[in-house]
Amino acid sequence: MQLPLETEALVVHAPGADFAMTPIVIQDLRPDELLVEIKYSGICHTDIWLQSGAAGPLVEFPAIPGHEGAGIIRAIGSEVKDKTLRVGDRVLLSFTACGECTPCREEQFSRCADFARLNLTGLRRPDGTTPAALRDDGRPVRSQFFGQSSFSRFSAVHEHCVVRYPFPKEEEEEEEEEDTLAIYAPMGCGYQTGAGTILNIMRPRPDQTVAVFGAGSVGFAAIMAAAAVSVKQVIAVDLVERKLELAKEMGATDAINTAALQKGTVVDEIRRLTGGRGVDFAIDTTGVPSVVEKMLDCLAYGGTAASIGATPMEARISVDVGAFFANKKTWIGVAEGDSHPPKV
Asked: What residues does the Enoyl reductase (ER) domain cover (predicted)?
């Protein structure tokens, strides 16, 4: 496929602006990149975080979000290390990493020392350039969000993002394969973030309890993972009743609709459900500061909380440090569920 390539993408032209289908030009492909025709993409809270301007100075506009892509390889750079990849292969796309820092050398790629710059700015290339430009005026558009910017029909994707689709073509009819490719697209972030936080980081025992704040795709993945390892209790927390009903179908033992509480707080309700203890593990997928505070407050003695939802860059929360210290609580930030996508 010849470059430059004219295509189109959902571009955010300014902080808080709507997604707008816009003609763009992919100008070149670096030796460590692949040209991928994006067939499907999930949409994640972090895409809305970028679109809203909550990333602050990290992101300049115009920019193309999207980081749960799935598609077909159309060209391969000459220095791509995985020599098994072929033009025409179906692939899933995930986050990128430098591959050189200490965490990367230990295969802890989601803890890459340069994670924020490489994934959140929309600029992956070392020289600070971007593969795409707006067709009409030639302005650069940040087009490697998480190394892929999957809200584009075609994207120049860094090699670290690319994972071969796990089902060989001969096992399925092509039409059916593309349908399952759509189902697997959110593996690139949502599924592995929620499930990985449970399975790779928290690793709860069957006698322990988990609360998940936010019943979206990330929260559902965490709930299913907790149910899969047969924890004692999984409490789903959300504002939307139908999402809580679905959370129960996916394995939640209890559900709290915070919009329907008649008295007390969600922390009071969690303590009531756990016999006064609180939970051993809590996960926030919302990024809402007031929800993060409640996540920390609902922990049992020695409990661990994980923030996996992106917050506005300047957000602050209030923590009762004395109680936090006295009750030996732990609060961690998690990216991508500590997952290594080729091994998920």
From this structure: 16-344
pLDDT digits (tens, 9 = 90+) for 209-255: 999 999 999 999 999 999 999 999 999 999 999 999 999 999 999 99
Contact 208, 281 (CB under 8 A): yes
Choose among 89, 90, 91, 97: nearest CA to 32. Answer: 97
pLDDT in tens, 247-264: 999 999 999 999 999 999
Q: Which domains does the chain have, with CATH numbers?
A: 5-188 (3.90.180.10), 190-341 (3.40.50.720)
Copy the structure tokens of residue 52: 């809203």
Query: What are the two backbone dihedrals, phi and then psi, of residue 5, each rounded to the nearest 5 degrees?
Result: -125, 125
Q: Does 167 have pLDDT greater than 80?
A: no
Task: Report the half-sphere exposure of 268 (CA within 13 A, side-chain side).
Answer: 6
Residue 177 exposed, middle or buried by CB count within 10 Å (0-12, 13-18, 19+) = middle
- Nearest-CA neighbor of 192 among 236, 224, 148, 231? 224
pLDDT above 60 for 172: no
Q: Which residues of 316-332 are buried (b: 16+ CB within 10 A; e: fewer)?
A: eeeeeeeebeeeebebe
- What does the DSSP assignment read for 38-96? EEEE---HHHHHHHHTTTGGG--SSB-----EEEEEEEE-TT-S-TT--TT-EEEE---
- CA 127 to CA 141: how far, in whole Å? 15
Edge-first strand listing for the sheet containing 90-93: 154-158, 33-41, 69-76, 90-93, 162-164
For residue 271, the surrounding DSSP H or E stretch is helix 266-273
Quote the CA–CA distance of 297 and 300 in Å, as a whole number. 9
pLDDT at 315: 87
Question: Looking at residue 35, what DSSP letter applies?
Answer: E
pTM: 0.91
Long-range contacts of 265-274 (CB under 8 A, 24+ apart): 265/294, 266/237, 266/294, 266/298, 267/294, 267/297, 267/298, 270/211, 270/235, 270/237, 270/298, 271/298, 273/233, 273/235, 274/209, 274/233, 274/235, 274/300
